[in-house]
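Human: Here is a favour to ask of a fellow structure person. Comparing notes only helps if you start from a blank page. Give me a protein, with the fold worked out from its sequence. Please set it down just below, with no commentary around it:

Assistant:
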Amino acid sequence: MYILLINTFTLWLLSIHTTHIAKYLPSSFHYIKSLSLFYWLGLILVSMLFIIFIYKEKKLKTKSEDLISLTLIIITILFLYGTPSFIYSNPRILDVYAFSHIIDIMTRYGGNFFTGNPMYKSQFQASTILFSIISQYASITSLAIAKYYTIYLMSMISLLLYSTAKKISIKYYIIAPMAYLSLGWVPEYNLAPQSISLLLTCVLQLVLISILKSNSNNSTKVSLAIIIWVTMCLSHALTPIMNLVSFIIIFLVDILSKKKLHILNVAYEIRSKVSKVFRLMVLYTTIYVSYILYQSEFIIKRVISTIEAILTNINSESTFVVIDRSVIEPSYSYLLGYKLRMLIIVITITIGLLCALIILLTEGEKPLNIYISGLFLGYTFIGIFLVATGYNIYGTGRTYIFLLIPFSILCSMCMNEIQRLEHNKYLRLVRYSVVVFIVVSMTILPITRYASDPYNFISESELTGKNFCLKEKNTTYYGNIQVIYPIPFEYAYYTHYYNFIEMKSKEGKEYADKFNEINIIYNSGQFKTSKV
C-alpha cells in the first residue's frame, strides 16, 4: 500500500513538471487536454487505492489505517485541487483578484484609508482582517496566499470531516472526506470570506455532534459553539442564514419524531438529547438578529434583492436556468460541463436522501441520525428553492458546498449501517453505488470543476496589464488602455466583467481590432501607425 502511495505521489510530481498552462483557449476541455499522461495514470491509481482501502480496511491496524487514509486524502487533494496551483502562473477565479486587491489595501493603509468595495471592510470584517494579518506578518503577498489557498482549505475540510466521521462511525472514516473531495466542483473554494465560514461550519458540526454524543452538559463545548457562531457571523454574514434554515428543518424532523411515526420510532430520551441543539439554535438566532440590526443596511438589501429576483423570475416563468451568470451564449463544451454538474447535484441529492432514509430506519445513534439527516435536508431545501425560482447564482455553488458536509457524513454512516446489515442484497447495492459514484465523480472532476476556467483564467501578461492600469490610473496612459479593462480592477467580479471576459475569449480577433482602432496614430489607407 505504501509503495503504491509513493508511486502515485511521484506521478503527480511528474504531471506538474511536464504541464504548464500560460494561456487559455475558449474551450471547457482545454484543461483536461493540457494534462499529461502522468496525471491520468496517477488519478487512476488514486481511485484504485481508494477502492482497495475500502475493502481491505479490516486487515489494517488502527495506526496504519489513519496514516494511509490521511496520506491518500492529501494525494487526492493535490491531484484534484492542487494541480492548478503549480501549472497556472496565477490564481484561478476572478473573485480572488478582487479580494486580493482589498487585502493589499488593508495591509498597506489600514481600514481608515479603505477605498475598495465597502462590504469587505464592513460586512466581512473577520475574514478580511484575518487574511490581511497573515499577509502582513508572514510577509507573503495576497496573490501568493491565494494561489495555494485551495490546498490548505480542502486539507482542513478533509481533516475535519475525517475527525467527525471517526467520532460517529466504527469504520469507513475515509468515505466522508473522499466523498467531499470528489464532488467539490464549485469555484467557491478560493481566497474569499465564505471559505472561512465554510471551515467554521465544519468545526461547528464537529462540536455539535460532540454535544449530541455526550451524556452530560458540557459548558466548554457550548461556549465554543457560541464563539464559532459569532465568528461565522463576522466572517460571512449570509452563511448563518443557510445554517439557521437547516436547523429549522432539523426541528421539523424532531417534531415528526415526537408524533411517534413508525418510520422514525424515536424515544423520548433521544428527543431530549436533540433538544440541546435546539436551545443553541434559539441563541444563534438571537445573535444573528442582533448582528443584522448592527449591519442592517447590507443584510436587508441583500435579502430584499434576493426576494425581488425570485419574484421576478416567478412572474416571468423563468424558474430554471441551465447556464450561469458568466455565460450568454455558451459553447457546446461549456454547456456539457455545466450539465454534468447539474447531473452530479441530482445524483448527490438522491444518494443523500437514500442514505438518510437507511440510517433513520435502522437502529443506532438516533439523535445523530435526526441531526445529520435534518441538516442535509435543510441545505437541500435551500438549494432546490433558489434554483427552482431562478436565483441560480447562489442556488448551486453557495449551498452545494455546505450540502456536501452532511452528505459526506451520511455516506460514512450509511456504509457502516449497511456493513452491519450485510445480508440484505439491496443495501449492498447501495453500498456499491456510493463507492462507484465517488470514483466516477473523482474521475470527471477535472471536467466539472475546470470547465469554467476559460472565463476565469488570468494570464501573466493580463495581470501585468491590470497592475499597470492601477499604477497609471491618473496618467495619460490610462486613457489609451482602459478599453482593455472597462471597469475598475477591484470590481472585477461583477457580471458585466464576466461577460467581457467571455466576449474577449470568443471574439479574439474583434477584440484585437478594436484595440488597434482606438490606439491608431495615423492611417493613410495604405499605412497604419498605432500606439504600443
Observations:
- The chain has 22 helices and two strands.
